[in-house]
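#help-structures

NK: newbie question. if I give both the sequence and a SMILES, will the prediction place the ligand too? trying with NAP
OV: yes, paste both and it writes out the complex. here, I ran yours:
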Amino acid sequence: MDIEKTPFSLTGKNIIVTGASSGIGRQCAINCSQMGANVILLGRDKQRLDQTLNSTTTPLKHLTYSLDLLDYSKVEEVLKDIVSQKGKIHGLVNCAGISTTLPLRAITPRKLDEFLHTNVHGGIQLTKLVTKKAFISEEGGCIIFITSVMGAVGEAGKSLYSMSKGALIAGSKSLAIELASKKIRVNCISPGVVETPMSKEAVYSQDETSLNQIKSYHPLGLGQAEDVANACIYLLSEASKWVTGINLFVDGGYTAR
Ligand SMILES: NC(=O)c1ccc[n+]([C@@H]2O[C@H](COP(=O)([O-])OP(=O)(O)OC[C@H]3O[C@@H](n4cnc5c(N)ncnc54)[C@H](OP(=O)(O)O)[C@@H]3O)[C@@H](O)[C@H]2O)c1
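OV: that's the protein plus ligand as structure tokens.
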């Protein structure tokens, strides 16, 4: 199949993927590369970013930057560098994030700050910069937030994580309306449990009974990073040119129960 001729092609598009050093972000960077994009991989761990880069078939086409997304002045410098090397940006996948299972009694102001800063501020500040006239393509662009089913439904111990993901789901709808006149589409993808380093470290993965319970919530079984990456391709490509302000559940049936 000639990728360039399908509406799902990302040929020639400059796509930034955060969290590209691990899990879903890593797979998203690899799949965007396969679909023809020039990918800009962001993450903190340089070695794991390079591993992702070398897993693409065209590493020389792509750029990596090791940075903390909460270092806002550095983020702006990086964007200037990206645009000077590759030209303006067509898409951003906000995938970097952290997760936890914590009962209400253990939620401290510091924990709340940590989650809101990493999961909300990090992506929103980057989106604010990327959508500036100096950085976004004149043709328009596409912003994706990787949220979670936990932003829409609940589980015990998930309130902190849910608050951070729910904030993005709510905010992205208003952003979709605000940015539509600039031809910028804004969408969320809400995965169920996907097998990545994050879910392997989660408390439910530490004993068989809890893991089996989590699996039973997913009629199609647990997800793979490529399930989310493929949804990103759709939302980044022309195939979804009339889609904005949605929250796409990619959850193996979790929210259908
Ligand atoms: N796995 C799941 O079951 C699941 C389900 C629903 C939603 N999600 C969401 O999907 C996204 C990716 O999850 P994952 O499972 O792929 O997790 P992961 O394997 O733990 O990867 C998380 C990524 O986020 C990056 N990151 C975290 N804080 C950062 C910061 N301050 N600055 C820059 N990068 C930062 C990490 O970079 P470094 O490693 O380089 O520090 C890493 O690349 C997250 O937003 C998560 O909430 C995951």
